[in-house]
Amino acid sequence: MRGYDSITGSEPKAEAVLEKISKSFSDATLDIREIAKYSNDPVFLSALIFKLAEEREKTNKILQEINEKLDHAFTDKEKKKWEKPEVKEASIEVLPETDQKILDFIEQRGMAEADQVKEALGYKGQNAASQRLNKLFREGHLRKVRSGRKVLYLARG
Fold first, then answer.
1. Which of 30, 37, 34 is nearest to 7 (CA)?
2. The model's pTM
3. I want to staple 130 with a disulfide (CB 3.0 to 4.6 A). Which of 6, 25, 83, 114 is the partner?
4. 13 vs 19: CA distance, rounded Å
5. Which one is predicted more confidently, 71 or 9?
6. What average pLDDT score do residues 73-91 get?
7. Distances (CA, A) of 138 to 2, 40, 112
8. What is the CATH number of domain 97-155?
9. Could you tell me where in the chain the CATH 1.10.10.10 domains are found?
10. Of 65, 77, 152, whose CA–CA distance to 112 is shortest?
């Protein structure tokens, strides 16, 4: 016996059992057996695929109409009940240790210049401290105030 022979009921006993179990299932197996006869015919297969595509289009139109009717049936308040709530992920920005030290230093003092940061953090030159301070300013962690040639960095608050 092959894999599908027991389902299609090639034995007379199987057909009788299928008929007793379910008339609709028995009828479906008859259709399957009829289709199986023509399954090697490319014209038949293309017609079958075309018919399936037509049925899918009809189903999509029906579903679209149902969606439109549902959209009109519910108020905005009722629609919000069905929508998933928008979850905003809390993001915590972790700064490099050096940047955090600079921010802590400025928060303690209220404000600082690049040469003060250079001394506090042990930089060899003022340029490195200035670059770090400008980076923190661009990222929005500090405020920047010019007074002539002096540049003061203030804590955001």
1. 30
2. 0.43
3. 114
4. 10
5. 71
6. 69
7. 74, 70, 16
8. 1.10.10.10
9. 97-155
10. 152
